[in-house]
């Protein structure tokens, strides 16, 4: 299929602060060959010097000096990704409630969303409790007409989760109820257990979760 024939989709990345959005998408770009190993190694060295080694994939998307120093996404970032069947414009949105206006701007341009949810104990609950950005982002995306969604149940590698199917199902069930509440047809939403840090189930199928 030639480039001009491929459908183009705007895809927004949403979710609560620190649930692994930028790391997950940065790692996806790396695994897809859109970012070179040299770039990741350079980011790793720079991040290590600031005591933020775990941010090496996030820095693919978080380019502002303040974002790197604070360890969070502030502004919208737009990136192109080509797959065998599609062209994507990936919109990385901030998860912190102080920058929700930027998320709204991005969602208003989106055809679909990937909602990142941390399965880590305490983090999932913080995002879905009243005032949590998982809840607010899902509501805003639905209100703005973003009807296509994939849910990445992230941080499956965390020590409190350890690739556990029961925890994945617990998070999935809770999110299914929340998404139904804000108006989504959850029969059409795909849930995927992922690890943004290790890359499991981002671009290549994981061998750590044979139950999925």
From TrEMBL:
Keywords: Cytoplasm, GTP-binding, Nucleotide-binding
Gene3D superfamilies: P-loop containing nucleotide triphosphate hydrolases
Domain annotation Tr-type G: ranges: 6-212
Any GO molecular function: GTPase activity
SUPFAM superfamilies: P-loop containing nucleoside triphosphate hydrolases
InterPro entries in the cross-refs: P-loop_NTPase, T_Tr_GTP-bd_dom, TRAFAC_GTPase_members
Pfam families the record matches: GTP_EFTU
Protein name per the record: Tr-type G domain-containing protein
Source organism: marine sediment metagenome
Organism phylogeny: unclassified sequences, metagenomes, ecological metagenomes
């Amino acid at each position: 299929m030639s480039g001009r024939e491929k459908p183009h989709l705007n895809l927004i990345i949403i979710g609560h602060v620190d649930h692994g959005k930028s790391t997950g998408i940065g790692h996806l770009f790396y695994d897809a060959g859109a970012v070179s190993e040299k770039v990741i190694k350079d980011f790793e060295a720079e991040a290590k010097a600031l005591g933020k080694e775990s941010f090496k994939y996030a820095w693919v998307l978080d380019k502002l000096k303040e974002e790197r120093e604070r360890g969070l996404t502030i502004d919208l970032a737009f990136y192109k990704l080509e797959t065998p069947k599609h062209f994507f414009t990936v919109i990385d949105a901030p998860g912190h409630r102080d920058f929700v206006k930027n998320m709204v701007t991005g969602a208003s341009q989106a055809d679909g969303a990937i909602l990142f949810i941390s399965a880590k104990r305490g983090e999932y609950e913080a995002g879905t409790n009243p005032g949590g950005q998982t809840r607010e982002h899902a509501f805003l995306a639905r209100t703005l007409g973003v009807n296509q969604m994939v849910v990445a149940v992230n941080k499956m590698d965390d020590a409190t989760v350890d690739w556990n199917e029961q925890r994945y199902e617990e998070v999935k069930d809770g999110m299914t109820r929340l998404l139904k509440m804000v108006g989504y047809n959850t029969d059409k939403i795909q849930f995927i257990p992922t690890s943004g840090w290790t890359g499991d189930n981002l671009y290549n199928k994981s061998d750590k979760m044979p139950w999925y």
